[in-house]
Amino acid sequence: MFGAGGDTHFEILDMAASDSIAYWVGFQRATAKMNGSKDIISMNLRVTEIYRREENEWKLIHRHADPLSSNSDNS
Fold first, then answer.
1. pLDDT the model gives residue 70
2. From CA 75, how far away is CA 28, in angstroms rounded?
3. Whole-angstrom distance, CA of residue 45 vs CA of residue 32
4. What backbone torsions phi and psi does residue 37 show, to the nearest 5 degrees?
């Protein structure tokens, strides 16, 4: 869906972890090219990701992201 030539930055507002589960919440600000287009688009997302430890690795088990509204204080 996305082509080469983008950039992303994460702004973490809160995060925590135990021995078996972890999460972070914050913002993802990115620029990206969609496949088949030369235009660069901006994305400002509110993100929550939850991870579970399986063996000795963290596995992403849930991600939710939605666009920040244009009238949000954080956009």
1. 63
2. 11
3. 13
4. -130, 145
For residue 72, give the 3-state DSSP assignment: coil
**pLDDT, tens only, 10-60:** 999 999 999 999 999 999 999 887 777 777 888 899 999 999 999 999 999
Tokens of 29: 């600000």
DSSP secondary structure of 1-68: -EEEEEEEEEEEEEEEE-SSEEEEEEEEEEEEEETT---EEEEEEEEEEEEEEETTEEEEEEEEEEEP
Neighbours of 23 (CB within 10 A): 14
* Calpha distance 10→35 (Å, rounded): 23
